[in-house]
Amino acid sequence: MFEYAPAPESRDVVDIKPSYGLFINGEFTDGGGTAFKTVNPASEEVLAEVAEASEADVDRAVQAARQAFGPWSALPGSERAKYLFRIARIIQERSRELAVLESLDNGKPIRESRDVDLPLVAAHFFYYAGWADKLAYAGYGTNPRPLGVAGQVIPWNFPLLMLAWKIAPALACGNTVVLKPAETTPLTALAFAEICQQADLPPGVVNIVTGAGATGAAVVNHPDVNKVAFTGSTEVGRLIARSVAGSGKKVTLELGGKAANIVFDDAPLDQAVEGIVNGIFFNQGHVCCAGSRLLVQESIATELLEALKRRLGTLRLGDPLDKNTDIGAINSAAQLAKIRELSQIGEAEGAERWSPACALPERGFWFPPTIFTGVAQSHRIAREEVFGPVLSVLTFRTPAEAVEKANNTPFGLSAGVWTEKGSRILWMADKLRAGVVWANTFNRFDPTSPFGGYKESGYGREGGRHGLEAYLDV
Ligand code: NDP
Fold first, then answer.
1. What is the pLDDT of residues 176-205, one digit of tens each?
2. pLDDT digit string (tens) for 393-439?
3. Probe ligand 1: pick from 236, 252, 411, max atoms within 8 Å of CB?
4. pTM to 2 decimal places
5. What is the pLDDT of residues 265-280, one digit of tens each?
6. Relative to the CA of 220, which ligand 1 atom is closest?
7. Protein residue closest via CA to atom 16 of ligand 1
8. Ligand 1 pocket member 213 (CB < 6 A)
9. Residues classed as catalytic
10. How are strands ordered across the β-sheet holding 176-180?
11. Which atom of ligand 1 is least distant from the CA of 255?
């Protein structure tokens, strides 16, 4: 293989301030909690100090959102749409800066933040801007009403994209928002706060409160919040479901997954290999719908695995800001520890571990792309979400066995099917208990398409017309 010359994206396009406050009622203010540092996971360099919102700060944010709710919800949809279109255009104008900021704070390769995250963020705002004046035609009655104040808590794997998934439909429907980004990735949410100012969004319509789990809990449990939207771990999702039960708050939960990526013997192998790589190594495997279980038909298992290993040998791991990089940094030391632990358990339980020769940088949090073969369904690496670049390989003989193995999980977020036969795709899609089933592709997202899970992957749908329902009083 030939060598690539380094092609680093310039950091000069971003202006990271030494410290950030909370964004409440259209202004940046101090937080009552203890400020925390956000680091670049690729170098462990401190990027900025960020305010922690106390319960009293969250209360201020909810009050600001409540005050803004009356006038915002009374605006004609076409007026709300103007703000959303404006935000979408500013995101496009600032997309290079936002992509660099996302890669610095999260560790994901610039190629992904630039070509996947940011275009989808803008597309989400454009899409829901289009709905704002057409809500009466969305299938939720002739005069659909917003819910009020939405409390939203998002994770670190797609920081700005998860913000867009939450804020765009909420505002289009006439709600106001208090959003808490993840502790390790607050910077693009704070840049978004500046974008709200730039777009002249009325104060209080969007409030951003930074902090850790306690701040998230204060948002979710605030009595004046009408709607809770959460994306994150199943464990915290369970806590939230318990704490809001009986409160009358409307809830959507987007939790973990353990998706099966199923390859039949008639699949185009080269394409399937690309789909497997994209399924599990995209975003370092920090993807709730990642294809973390490869189910391959026994007759082609050897051939497919050889091709897959060859392909993994060509993946480049390293500086997230280098445009040649395929695999960036693991988002945090805690997540790296979890990936290491589950991988060690995989070996201890008898599965065979393989990674390509791959030099890891000395500083920062890194994990090589890893494949486990000889995996049994009872192994923890086949059952639990690793949330890292780790693939478990299992085999099957018949379509019925593939379905049974794929569905043998407490999760139900996504699945992939690789076959030449359209009839088999439809048969499988009907049988697979997963919110999204991709056919001959994987990890494809579009704002028009609803996304969400079954079982322990959560409930409610985000995206598309279905995503409006979560923010309307229906
Ligand atoms: P969490 O579920 O802990 O975090 C998600 C968000 O919820 C963060 O903003 C977090 O804040 C906040 N939070 C934490 N505790 C509470 C609480 N009690 N009430 C309200 N909000 C809370 O996920 P982690 O980031 O800790 O990741 C752990 C595991 O979760 C991963 O290994 C992965 O398996 C899974 N995960 C799944 C995701 C998905 O997309 N489905 C996304 C991220 C993680 P803070 O960041 O400060 O802790």
1. 999 999 999 999 999 999 999 999 999 999
2. 999 999 999 999 999 999 999 999 999 999 999 999 999 999 999 99
3. 236
4. 0.97
5. 999 999 999 999 999 9
6. 20
7. 213
8. yes
9. 254, 288
10. 27-29, 22-24, 206-208, 176-180, 149-153, 227-231, 250-254, 458-459
11. 41
